[in-house]
From TrEMBL:
<dbReference type="InterPro" id="IPR036683">
    <property type="entry name" value="CO_DH_flav_C_dom_sf"/>
</dbReference>
<dbReference type="InterPro" id="IPR016169">
    <property type="entry name" value="FAD-bd_PCMH_sub2"/>
</dbReference>
<dbReference type="InterPro" id="IPR002346">
    <property type="entry name" value="Mopterin_DH_FAD-bd"/>
</dbReference>
<dbReference type="GO" id="GO:0016491">
    <property type="term" value="F:oxidoreductase activity"/>
</dbReference>
<protein>
    <submittedName>
        <fullName>Carbon-monoxide dehydrogenase medium subunit</fullName>
    </submittedName>
</protein>
<feature type="domain" description="FAD-binding PCMH-type">
    <location>
        <begin position="1"/>
        <end position="172"/>
    </location>
</feature>
<dbReference type="InterPro" id="IPR005107">
    <property type="entry name" value="CO_DH_flav_C"/>
</dbReference>
<dbReference type="InterPro" id="IPR036318">
    <property type="entry name" value="FAD-bd_PCMH-like_sf"/>
</dbReference>
<dbReference type="InterPro" id="IPR016166">
    <property type="entry name" value="FAD-bd_PCMH"/>
</dbReference>
<keyword id="KW-0285">Flavoprotein</keyword>
<keyword id="KW-0274">FAD</keyword>
<dbReference type="InterPro" id="IPR051312">
    <property type="entry name" value="Diverse_Substr_Oxidored"/>
</dbReference>
<dbReference type="Pfam" id="PF00941">
    <property type="entry name" value="FAD_binding_5"/>
</dbReference>
<dbReference type="GO" id="GO:0071949">
    <property type="term" value="F:FAD binding"/>
</dbReference>
<dbReference type="InterPro" id="IPR016167">
    <property type="entry name" value="FAD-bd_PCMH_sub1"/>
</dbReference>
<keyword id="KW-0560">Oxidoreductase</keyword>
């Protein structure tokens, strides 16, 4: 691993000043550190966010759940607030990776990395979440659907910090299901049924998750989704195989949704 300078700010204002000087933010480092060890990234400055208290915690703000940038997968999965209002995210974060990743990895870091097989991204897209981005000179809020541009690429500028994730609080039912025969999932499916219809998100089969909307859960067409989803052939399987498992697991997700309660 190349040499780097480690900075440990204690406030958001201090952190974004370090980013303006070329720093790269990190907290859990579960995806960043392995990439650095492979020599694929060599930042001169790492900005450790773990001492910034305002970036921690999960709270309800008006009609939204707000998760700070330091919130881990385990904290999300165990949160009564998330389990009550965004159960699909609690389910997704309780199953991803391994115990070490869930204990130390953060949701913010996960979606900033934009790994195509991200369980977190699949769930957040189903929930129509947004993210708060802040720099030393400006701040903005972006829909998660617009935040990820492609595999390992987001609209976050180098000087911006992903400060928080916002999830609207709505009456809904949801389900989350994944198929992982190997090290990574072959398909992940998140479904949310609310007053405005049913939103189905299929992740892992392609470079970015596919989002599909229907008037209601009863209108969801698994075969249509499997035919339309963008597929990337890789170690997870050929295109025809991935389309097949997509249809199977969309059907299972919808059956699970029909049996579930509000979440």
């Amino acid at each position: 691993m190349a040499d780097f300078e480690l900075r440990r700010p204690t406030s958001v204002a201090e952190a974004v000043e370090h980013l303006a000087e070329g720093g790269l933010p990190y907290c859990g480092g579960t995806e960043l550190i392995p990439v650095m060890q492979l020599g694929l990234m060599a930042p001169d400055i790492l900005v450790d966010l773990k001492r910034i208290e305002p970036l921690g915690g999960i709270r309800e703000d008006a009609a939204e759940i707000v998760l700070g940038a330091r919130v881990t997968h385990d904290e999300t999965a165990a949160s009564p607030l998330v389990r009550r209002h965004a159960r699909v995210l609690a389910e997704a974060t309780s199953r991803l990776g391994n115990a070490r990743v869930r204990a130390t990895g953060t949701l913010a870091g996960n979606i900033c990395f934009a790994e195509p097989r991200s369980d977190v991204l699949t769930a957040l897209l189903a929930l129509e979440a947004r993210v708060d981005l802040r720099s030393a000179t400006d701040s903005r809020t972006v829909d998660v659907a617009d935040f990820v541009e492609g595999p390992f690429a987001t609209v976050r500028q180098e000087e911006e910090l992903l400060e928080a994730i916002r999830i609207p609080v709505r009456a809904s039912r949801s389900s989350y299901i994944r198929f992982q025969p190997g090290e990574y999932p072959t398909v992940t499916v998140a479904a949310v049924q609310g007053d405005g219809g049913c939103r189905v998100v299929v992740g892992a089969v392609g470079e970015i998750p596919g989002v599909f909307t229907f008037p209601s859960a009863e209108d969801v067409d698994a075969a249509e989704i499997a035919a339309q989803v963008d597929v990337t052939e890789d170690l997870g399987g050929r295109e025809d195989y991935k389309r097949h498992v997509t249809e199977v697991f969309v059907r299972r997700a919808m059956a699970q949704l029909a049996e579930g309660s509000a979440a």
